[in-house]
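User: We ran a pulldown and think these components assemble together. Before we commit to crystallization trials, I'd like a predicted model of the whole complex to look at. Sequences follow.
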Amino acid sequence: MVHVRLAWIPVGCLLLGGCAAPRQAALDLNGSPINVFAAKPASVTVLLFVSNDCPIANRYAPEIQRLHDRFACRGAAFWLVHADPSESPVEIQQHARLYHLDLPLIRDPHHQLTRLAKAEVTPSAAVFFPGRKLIYHGRIDDRFVELGRERPEAMNHDLAEAIEAALSHKRVPVSAAKAVGCYIPSEP
Amino acid sequence: MTRHLPQGTRPDLLKTNRSRRRSSLGSLVRPTVLLPLVFLLAGFPATGEVTFNKDIAPVVFQNCATCHRPGQSGPFPLLTYADIKKRAKQIVEVTARRYMPPWLPDGPKDLFLGDRRLSEAQIQLFRTWLEAGTPEGPAQELPTKPNWTEGWQLGQPDLVVQMPKKYTLPAEGRDVYRNFVIPVPLGKARYVRALELQPDNRRIVHHAFIKVDATGEVRKMDGTDGQPGFAGMNLPEQVKTPSGCFLSWQPGKMSSAEAPGFGWTLKPGQDLVLQAHLRPTGKPEELQAQVGLYFTDIPPTNLTAVFVLCSFTLDIPAGTNDYLVEDSFVLPVDVEALSVLPHTHYLGKRIEGWAVFPGGTREPLLRIPDWDFNWQGDYRYARPVHLPAGTILQMRYLYDNSNTNPRNPNQPPKEVRYGPQSSDEMGELWFQVQLKNTNDLARLAEASNEHHARAFAGYAQFRLKQNPHDARARTELGFIQWSHGRTDEAAANFRTAAADEPAFDQPHYYLGVIHRTQHRLAEARAEFQTAVKLNPQNSRAFGNLGFVFLGLGDLESAERSLRSALELNPADDLARNTLQAIVKQRSANPESRP
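Assistant: Here's a predicted model for the assembly, 782 residues in total across the polymer chains.
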């Protein structure tokens, strides 16, 4: 299945007049294109969309790290995705240090992953099976109901449940739950 | 200077108008009436395209960038075209919902000072700009940014005090309510005309109150859990807002100095107590706030007072979404209302306070349709509101203890009663008023104390109904009875309380006071001795014990007790002076030493 898709991409590039695919791809912090679905062999891929100055995304930093520490060892590949094109690699690295985030960092300035993950705000998450099959997208948990209206503690941990289900080959309880946070700015 | 609110307006007028408007929008007739309005709005951009430089920047600079700039409370800056373009969609949403700029009361725009609400036209401007694709416009149309005052808003303070130690807020978890004790090095009493809070870390302080402790009580609570300050929303009753002033802080609130003749007096030995609501940010944060004090030589001769409408007997069943709490208070004298301060916790839903004038007309004094604990503070009337003697002040609060209230601290919801913790509830509406003369001040104080005592007695009885062996409630009831001259009833309640909770010092303390006032010094001595044995921190029991020993002619024991009282409460001038007199007498008659 994966091979078939990859085979089609060059044809698409030709049709568009010149291969745009590498320019559109997500980048590591050195600026090299990276395919998160091929970089690590993983049964489940988790993308976490954050930004440097979204207070809600920042409040989730300890929870994001905890989810990584809990599930990465069980075969889930985690990526912390910065989709705001104005955030520089240096700032992103500083931010990760400041918030004690020890996860692979990538940039998605052209929103290739953002679109694939249907991410609109930070923080939000997406869980994929191999073959880029999106099985969950949306909020990390339900602590925030809307901006300025939050629970003292989360009641439903949607992302953790989705990853748990995916890793144990069970049905994901919900496939999408609306995330509350800061809009990811559109491409410049 | 003063004014009446427009006569004949009913407090529910706003609500009536709103519901009428909402329902008629849905009707079939209304669109034709609205049509001219639609044309007007559509015609708006005809004066030129809405651009950032011409239209958006002035609104953002005036209304958002006060906080949304480096070093202030806003989590990100809103200063440049890039900053604002990037967040255009968010700005449209939060302004339309009126989440930003934050301002809780509805009603007329000119009622309170510092009203941060945008106009409907300004909100529409953001929408139009976003729909037009966020054009920047010609650079020469960009206004210069306001000349924001950096640092102290009121200029260099006469005295800057600081939290003695840094407090570290954990990276995550529930919100934190923490009280910090800030000693003030004063050689003599000073008149304070203004006070300004400078949280060094504005990102974490969501709101704060500053109060004054003259008793040394809070020093004993400071740091007992290993971190600076002490936890919780409840301060000891002796910690007060300085006579007749509310000192609240929230992001974006302007600092203001009192007019000459207003203000309050700060005395040597008194501590400031910073009560802060702190929000974790995702990483450990430090706080070491500063308070700037501005003094004046003009004594605060204008008479201000604060009093409260409240209920202590609230008992909100789990699942209820419209629990009603009401209270009223009849003003015994003419007052000018200067400001108003509502207070509830996370179940508070709607807040209303109004005045019923002697003629029967009702005027709204405060309306908050969607209460948000996070943005609480006091509201100062733009012009003092004249409330003549005989005016009835009323409060009406609604609470939502269902699971559809996301802020509900209990999930699943449970029965909630009065209490100071964030999972308890409160219902208070404070007024700050100005009075004409000291006679009026005394009459207001008497009426207010009476009102408060009745509410408090009701609360004690409410708790005794739940648990007849509640020694704390029985002691409070006894205290109120005693202060109303019902000494026998009071003494009986103190004795029962002492039997119900043998380790509790307060019933013994009050029994001692009763004995002392009735000149039964031996009995008084025994009760005070029991009180200090049960609670060696009870400075007032030590002070009383000192005077009882003095009455019994035991100077040495009197001196020892008064020294303990003074050690526990350095602000106890009576103990200090008496102690000095004893020492003087002793040195005059050295042979009287045993």
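The interface with chain A takes residues 75-76, 82, 86-87, 89-90, 93-94, 97, 99, 102, 171-172, 174-175, 203, 280-283, 346, 372, 374, 406-409, 411, 422 of chain B (CB under 8 Å). That may be worth checking against your pulldown data before setting up trials.

User: Thanks, that helps.
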